[in-house]
User: Fold this.
Amino acid sequence: MRNKFFTLVALTAIATSFIFVGCGGGGGGGGGGNDERDVTYTGITSQALINENNAQEMSAGAFEAANSGMATIQLPASIQQQPGDYENVPGFQALKLPLVLKNAIVSAEVTNLSARFFTSAVETESGTIYGNCGGQATYIFEMNDDAGTFNGSMTFLSYCDNGVTISGQTNVYGTFDTVADEPLTFTITFDNLESDHITLDGEISIDLTMVPFVVTMNYYGTDNVSDKVYWIRDYTLIITEVNDITEVELTGRFYHPDYGYVVLTTPVLFVIYEGDDFPSDGSLVLSGANGTKAELNAIDYLYCECKSDSDGDGVYDWESGAMLWTDLYETDDEESSPPTAGEWSGTAGFGEIDLVVNAEGNGIEEVTIAFEDYKCGIVTSNLILNVSFNPPSSIDTGQVAFDFDLDPPPVDTTLTMEGTFNTSGTSISGTYEADFYDTICTGTWSATPGSASTPAQIEWIEGGTQTIINYHYSGGVLSGMTFHRKFEVTSGSGNVQIQATLKDSSTSADIIDEISDTFQVVESSEYEVLVHANVGGQGLCSPFDTDKMIFSSPSASTNSEITISSQLKQNPATGQYDWYCVRNYAIDSIKLN
Assistant:
């Protein structure tokens, strides 16, 4: 049991360090380490006035800290699952948490095997964990079995994991259950923890005695490029994990040196599904001075929107429209590239959309919209509308807007569209509002460079170190599976249709279940398809019984298969080992990362 304890402590310290790799803000409250720095927050300390010019930047900074906190608290819960079953940790690819978990668990378990033979009331354990791309992390912990307390430290020396390098020392202390030999509370402190662009000074406290778990963060963060200091203060996260879903409630304060602080609340909990990098639901409200506020809403796991109320009247007077989560961090201060010239294609809630961007990248020459069995009120439309603009419709600071009359007067059916290009000029996303006979229907749309008439071509990536299947357990019983398959866009940009089909063999005509969807891709890019299926447990079968998950696409010349093999497990009724196969598949989602 003691080696399990040290695994938990070591992992928490490592993950705490990785929290801040992508952080744009910081806070304070005492640190730990040998090279103490005198870091203080010298920015504006009054409550911020929120307006359309700072709402997105403030929302991004506050939400970035929220992402970090979620990653920290989930580690203990995930580690206590069955060996090898760590998929309940949401994707958060920027934090590299899945790889940190895998590497740290293996290393920490090996270095602590001798701990099981220790019998003294006070025990000291130390070890070294090596990064997969260089550097090392050394740790030493002292346990007091009589008092149920522990303390120690972990020092990172150019520790590199999956391309992220950190250096510095963290101190760890807390309490543990002397019977179960499991940690109860942690406090991790640091005062000079460095990554590529930020240095941290502060602490994080984790309370595992309650369900859901509770994390409190207080730290300063110095941007090593601008030397600005940010502050996360009394930032508390309450996190619930249920099967493949994580719910997060957060409160606290976020201080921006140029604007002041905002008070954070989550009127709608953030909901993150396994395999996603961002929430599919939830709202974060930032309350400023004089009733001003900003709101960040999750539309789905790909898109979000930001709003601001700049006069405190309770009505939002600015909205960003739908944008990719990754574009949330792009502000007007960043250097932008003009949109790619030429043909663009994409999808919308009503069907498909094509654009033509002029050679200068500052206008739209042509728009084609195609309704596909789109129902709004009493109308179901299959209208195709092509509109040319001379001169081109202006692209103003990366934004476009269109108003279309779908029928001649006196019939009043209109379509209004707004969109924003990302700063690299390689994608556009936005919202639309259709007015069909006084029935208002809304939705989102997006597009990327490439012609829909010449669809992109893809090639499945086989082999390598990519994850193939994640097994999900609930109460020790298999409840779900996530299938992974990567592909590369070998030519063209635009839409590709991906289909995932479950069969009992490659040649069988009988389909167990299937799902398909259309996604936008960009030439020379690599993507990962994730298909999730609920299952009804496992049943006895032959060792030779297998099922097949078959990935196919009209844009690929070949299919790609994943074999689901029978597993040898101990029968709880007889104590003997038998072969088991998955039963009762039900595919419920297909996504693209």
About this structure: Residues 2-245 form one domain. The longest helix spans residues 55-79. The chain has a mean pLDDT of 76. The radius of gyration is 26 Å.
